[in-house]
Amino acid sequence: MMAAAFSWIKAEPQGIRIVPADCWIDPARPADRALITHGHADHARGGHGQTLATPATLAIMNLRYGVTDGAVPVGYGEEIKLAGDVTASFHPAGHVLGSAQVLLQHAGERVIVTGDYKRRADPTCPPFEVVKCDVFVTEATFGLPVFRHPPIGEEIAKLLKARADNPERCVLVGAYALGKAQRLIAELRRAGYREPIYLHGALERMCRLYEEHGIDLGELRLVAGMPKGALAGQIVICPPSALTDRWSRRLPDPITAMASGWMRIRARARQRMAELPLIISDHADWDELTATISEVDPAETWITHGREDALLRWCTLNQRKARALALVGFEDEDD
Fold first, then answer.
1. Quick check: is 14 in a domain?
2. What is the mean pLDDT of residues 143-159?
3. Among 3, 40, 138, 231, which residue's beta carbon has the most beta carbons within 10 A?
4. Which is an annotated GO molecular function term of this record (predicted)?
């Protein structure tokens, strides 16, 4: 009797299980062997017996979670043999430094697990690589037609204009510690901003790690110890949680900004108390999700962590076989 197609890979609540290899992709619980797509906390955890990831992702996991034992670096494009006649390779996902899609091959079938990804150019990480496959496991964080991210240059221009128009104030930008903060800094530099950029202390170590991996962020200074008046007219970046806490009171009448794809939704901007919402995301928007599925052209699309129903409906209307998964702990871009 012929085995069912793709029966060797299972979507279970705690992650994607590669059955013949007895290992997992981005498991929510400690596993004997785990392949990790990137360093965000909803995908990367400590406690695995063996952790396979790109060198940059392993460095991020070491910094954030103290993962060193059992760490196995896998370069982009490097093919590794797993148990049960399964091979795996890592390919750029364009999400954050070190992020990867995992290509699995077994019994003549090819499965791509994307983790998180974006298609926009990003000076802090390699671009998404289109890899043909039979099953494409895609995120759907922004899987609704309302989510169409503007060009990042427009959002950076808004930020720079707010600074220029308010020289007596500072612009305080909430940005996630891994990926978003470094991309924001790099985009400011690409736009010609050469002044020092000031950081909340919680962002410093990750920014330095990016620099160690060859990402030029220009001059960065810590807010700590700076006189309040010296920060007038400056750009300050902090974790979103610090936007309205006591730490921000040391700043000169800050213009509160938030960099997130969720800033497309006014209620989210109000929730963050963002005077200046900046629609900057490290995830694919609706058009990029649908275009990527069309470009990859898989026999099946598996949809997870996000707005699964709308993307599932799009696949159905476009005569594409698809199903929604039910994984635990995935959905938001907050990290």
1. yes
2. 97
3. 138
4. exonuclease activity
Which CATH number goes with the domain that contains 17? Answer: 3.60.15.10
Q: What is the mean pLDDT of residues 290-312?
A: 94
Neighbouring C-alpha atoms within 13 Å toward the C-beta of 8: 21
Question: What are the residues whose beta carbons fall under 8 Å from the beta carbon of 284, sequence distance 6 or more?
Answer: 117, 118, 119, 139, 141, 142, 292
pLDDT at 271: 84
Q: Is residue 104 part of a domain?
A: yes
Tell me which DSSP letter residue 76 carries: B
Residue 210 and residue 172 in contact, taking contact as beta carbons nearer than 8 Å: no
Q: How far apart are CA 316 and CA 313, in angstroms?
A: 5
Categorize the per-residue pLDDT at 2 as very low, low, confident or very high, splitting at 50, 70 and 90. very low
Where are any strands of DSSP class E within 54-123? Answer: 71-73, 79-82, 86-92, 100-106, 109-113
> Are 105 and 207 in a shared domain?
no
CA distance 120 to 193: 21
pLDDT of residue 59: 98
Does residue 332 fall inside a structural domain?
Answer: no
Pull the structure tokens for residue 141: 């964080």
Structure tokens at 143: 């899987």
CA 87 – CA 82 distance, rounded (Å): 6
Query: Distance (Å, rounded) from C-alpha 84 to C-alpha 8?
Result: 10
What are the CA-CA distances from residue 192 to residues 71, 154, 187, 197 (Å)?
39, 14, 9, 13
Considering the domain boundaries, does residue 330 fall inside one?
Answer: no
258 φ, ψ to 5°? -140, 130
Looking at the fold, whether 13 and 138 belong to one and the same domain comes out as: yes
- How many CB atoms are closer than 10 A to CB 19? 13
Q: How many residues does the chain have?
A: 335
Boundaries of domain holding 46: 9-146+283-324
